[in-house]
Amino acid sequence: MHSLLTVIDALPAMLAGTLVTVSNVFISLAMGLLLGIPLALAQVYGSRPLRAMVGLYVWFFRGVPILVLLFLCYGLFISLGLPAESFAISCLVLGCTSTAYQSQIFRGAIESLPQGQLKAARALGMDDRTGICSIILPQALRLSIPGWANEYSILLKDSAICFVLGTQDIMARTSFAAARTHEHLALYAAAGAVYFVLTLAVLKLLGRLERKVQIPGYTAIGVEPEGMEARS
Amino acid sequence: MTSGIEIVLSVRNICKSFGAKRILTDCSMDVKRGEMKVLIGPSGAGKSTFLHSINCLVPPDSGDILLEGRPLDRSNKKALCAFRMQVGMIFQDFNLFDHLSARENVAIALRKVRGMGRDAAAHRADEELARVGLARQAALYPAQLSGGQKQRVAIARALAMDPKVILLDEPTSALDPELVGEVLSVIRDLAADGMTMIMATHQMDFARALASEILFMEKGRIIERGTPEALLADGSGTRTRDFCTRLLDMGAQAGHD
Prior knowledge:
The structure holds two protein chains of two kinds. Helix content of chain A is 78%, strand content 2%. By secondary structure, chain A is mainly α. The termini of chain A are far apart. In chain B, the strands form two sheets. A six-stranded mixed beta sheet of chain B has the order 6-7-8-3-9-10, with helices on both faces. A four-stranded antiparallel beta sheet of chain B has the order 2-1-4-5, with helices on one face. In chain B, a hairpin with a 2-residue loop joins strand 1 and strand 2.
C-alpha cells in the first residue's frame, strides 16, 4: 500500500519527465528523418568521395556507445565555451546517432527497389531529381516504415541513458524519487510501464500508417497471389 | 521536311564496351517516319543494349544520335531529358511504377515533365488507356494487373508523351504465351496509325508481317538488313533466314511436348 502511495506521489514528476522524454525522442527522430534521407540518397547516388564521407559518419555513430558520445559532446561544449545544456546535448547525440541508423534503413529500402524504376523514369524524360522524388522515395519510404518503427522503439529506450547528464526525463525523475523513498521496485516498475506504453502506442500508430499507405495488391510478403500473372 | 521519306531518327556508328568486352560495334540506322524497324538475332547479340544506347539509358562510348536531323548533345542533361521525352521506351519487364495506379503511371510524366495540371494529365491518361483497351483498369495498381495489361499500360505511358519514335525492347518476352497476342495487337494498331518504331523481338511472324526492315544482329554488329521478303525468302541463304528456321524448328519441337 505504501509503495502504491509513493508511486502516486511521484506520478506528477514522472509525467513531466515523460514530456521531456517524448520531446527528446521526437526531436531526435525528426532530425534523423530530415538528415537520414539525404544521407541515404548520397550513399546510393552520390559520387565516390561523398559516399565515403557518409560511410565514415555512419561508421562513427554506429561504432561509439551513446553513453560515451554524451560525455564526449558534453566535454566538447564545455571546452568550446558553449552552454552545456543537457537537453540540447541529449537531442544532438541521439539525433546524430539516429541519423546514422535511419540513413541505413532508407538506403536498404532504396536499394531494394528494382533498377528499372529509375530507368523508366529517365526514359520518360524525368531528370534524376524528379525521378527520385516522384518514383523512388514514395516507394522506399513505404518500405522503410517497419524499420523506422523499430528505430523509434530503440531510440525511446536509448533515451533513458540521457539522465546521466541531468536531463529531467522519466528515468531522472524516477531515480530521484527512488533515492528519496527507497521504493525502487514500485517506482522502476512504473517507469518501465510508461516506456512500455509509449512504445506500444506509437508502434500501433505506425502500423496503422503502414496499412494506410499500402500499395493495393501488395502485402507484407510481396504480391497477392491473385494479382500476379499466372506462371506455369 | 514535307517529303514522305523524312528521317525521324538517325543513329550512326554506335560503339559500346563494358570493360574489355565489346558489346556494340558501329551500329547505324536511319528510321523514316512511320517505319517499323525490327531487330532480331540470338540472345547476347546486343539488341537490347543497342536500344538502350539510342536513348542513352546505356550511354554509348561513341557515335551520333540525331532526332529529326538535330544531333543529341549527351553531356547536356536538359537536352538529354528533352530528347528522351520524344523517344518512347517499352521494356521487356514493363517497369511500371509500382506505387501508382495505371492512370497515375501514365499521368505522372505528363505532370512532372510536361508540366500539365493534375486534371488535364488524368484526362489524357484515360484517353491513352482507352486506346490500349484498358479504360476500365485505370484505377488498378500494377500488382493487380496481368502481364499483358501491364505492358499495355507501359505503352499508354509512352504514347502519352507524344513520342516521335518508340523503342520496344522485346515487349512480349516476359509474357505468358496466351498474353502475347493482346500486346502485339496494340503494337499492330500503332503501326497502322503510322507510329515510328524500333523493336527487338523473337516474334518472327509478327516481324515478317509488319517490319519495314529487318536488321539482323550478331556479336554486337548489324550483319544483315533488308525487307522481310528479301531476308526471309526461301533459298535466300541469309543468316536471318537460317536463324528464323532454327527458331521455328525449336517452336515446333516445343509444340510436340
